[in-house]
Amino acid sequence: MALLHWEADSLGINLSDDQLTKFETYYARLVAWNKRCNLTSVTDYEAIQTRHFLDSLSIILADGDLNHKTIIDVGAGAGFPGLPLKIVFPDMCLTLLEATGKKTEFLSHLCDELDLKSVTVINDRAENVAHNAGHREKYDLSVSRAVASLDTLCELCLPFCRTGGNFIAMKRQADLELTSADQAMSVLGGQLRQRIAVKSNALPDGSELLVIEKTKSTPSGFPRRNGIPGKRPL
Ligand code: SAM
């Protein structure tokens, strides 16, 4: 994990030997499970270190200490960005929400093997879970990467944030998406607070973090039923 070690350092993240060993195990299990179920198209050792692990850790540019915070990763897939963050911040309380059963099986197995505490893996859709009182407006932070366009994502992610919390969307060249998401943000109780450029030679140009603050409660009718946020964005 020398590349990850080096590149994380340039983002201001100093990874310990124990954390690097966990990332090594993550890589090995990801590649092994990927032969049986489709977890990622990125399988090269170096590319996984940058395009999955380092990219996930870039969230730290928006919030430098996630310990003791409650975070939900919506559409976590094989764990990105939530699990790399959990490896670095062992005291954060993480929920990994993912609609595909094979992927949640992988996530549960990996969390056990890495002995990560305070991680909840949920196999369901955001449209359902966001109406559950145990999850609605309960999180300091919701995060999401590569799941949907920003207007749709606001409907899937903002309902999980407490008022005063943030939704961080990992995007690339987001100008157009931001314009289209104006209406969704205002209906759902969000306001764009920051656009943080992620500058690293190891990551694609134009990567950025959109920090959307939850300024007021989301009306109870949102998210709408399964599939509608994507088919008919606000
Ligand atoms: N976030 C991961 C990453 O960046 O590698 C996975 C990205 S993958 C392209 C999108 C994932 O979002 C898929 O695993 C899919 O099952 C999940 N997903 C899509 N819509 C969802 C929803 N409404 N609720 C929960 N998961 C969803």
Which word captures the global form? globular
Mean pLDDT: 97
Task: Name the beta content range.
Answer: 15-25%
CATH topology tier name: Rossmann fold
Secondary structural class: alpha/beta
Binding site for S-adenosyl-L-methionine: 75, 80, 98-100, 126-127, 145
Main location: cytoplasm
Keywords: Cytoplasm, Methyltransferase, rRNA processing, S-adenosyl-L-methionine, Transferase
Protein name: Ribosomal RNA small subunit methyltransferase G
Notable features of this structure?
7 strands; 38% helix; binds S-adenosylmethionine; 234 residues; alpha/beta
What does this structure look like?
With 234 residues, the protein is an alpha/beta fold. It has a single domain (2-218), classed as 3-Layer(aba) Sandwich (Rossmann fold). 38% of the residues lie in helices and 22% in strands. The chain contains ten helices and seven strands. It has helices spanning 2-10, 17-34, 45-57, 82-88, 101-113, 126-129, 150-157, 175-180, 182-188, 228-231; strands at 70-74, 93-98, 119-123, 139-145, 161-172, 190-197, 207-214. The protein has a seven-stranded mixed beta sheet with strand order 3-2-1-4-5-7-6, sandwiched between helices. The longest helix is centred in the N-terminal third of the chain and has 18 residues, at 17-34. It is globular. The relative contact order is 0.13. Bound molecules: S-adenosylmethionine (SAM). S-adenosylmethionine binds next to β2 and α6. Its EC number is 2.1.1.-. Pfam families: GidB. InterPro entries: rRNA_ssu_MeTfrase_G, SAM-dependent_MTases_sf. Keywords: Cytoplasm, Methyltransferase, rRNA processing, S-adenosyl-L-methionine, Transferase. Specifically methylates the N7 position of a guanine in 16S rRNA.
